Amino acid sequence: MYTIDGKKLASIREEKLKERIKRLKICPKVVSILVGNDPASVMYTNMKQKKAKDVGIDFKPLRLPAQTTPKRVVTEIERLNKDEDIDGIMIQLPLPEKYFSKNLTPKIIQKIDPQKDIDGLTGKGKFIQATVKAVVTILSSEKELGKNKRTVVVGGVRGMVGVGLVNELKRLGEEVEGISKSDPQLKNKTKKADILISATGVKNIITAELVKKGTVVIDVSYDVDFKDVSKFASKITPVPGGVGPMTVVCLMENIWEKYL
Q1: Is the pTM of this model over 0.85?
Q2: Which of 102, 125, 199, 236 holds its CA 20 to 30 A away from the CA of 210?
């Protein structure tokens, strides 16, 4: 078993990105809307802010209380859309469930100007979702693409990231199937995967009994029982230190690509 070092891969791309942004001779400006004080969301926002500073991007969190109404969030998005000094707009997900239903979140995301949607969540702009880009970049770096391997994405039926992964891998010509975490044939389908990607947000949903010997396993969000599954995987991404660091750098790359 080989553990894929996402931090190392991300650091290599980060150094290249620093030089590219220097050549722009301007400082791109990004605003990330953070509603509430969810510890994970605060951590990820702080991580993005630090990384942005490292590569030369002005990253400003717009912190709003947890009880902020959806209408207020939309108002802030519309204001930022009109601000010519702002290059990119992000919303840190998930939004507080008490005030924002799962059906409401996509509607709010669609209010972002596609030209400023650096996280690629509207599906209308030029940018690929940062997490999707991160997973594809890791697979490409590990030379796992273009080998007629069968890829299965758990969470690839309704999940924003999972569906994005299925679509992007299909676009690249890969053999890929998106399945639901509640699929009655879950075990049967995952056991046929040469590359297994899980993006459900359900901790340890992927156990050893779901993985065949030699599978490449990509864990997007604490989905994989690492100790259990690593006994069977040929390659595996850890959490933390796998997809996460690459996602942050891919997000920063999207900001730079706005100027291409």
Answers
A1: yes
A2: 102
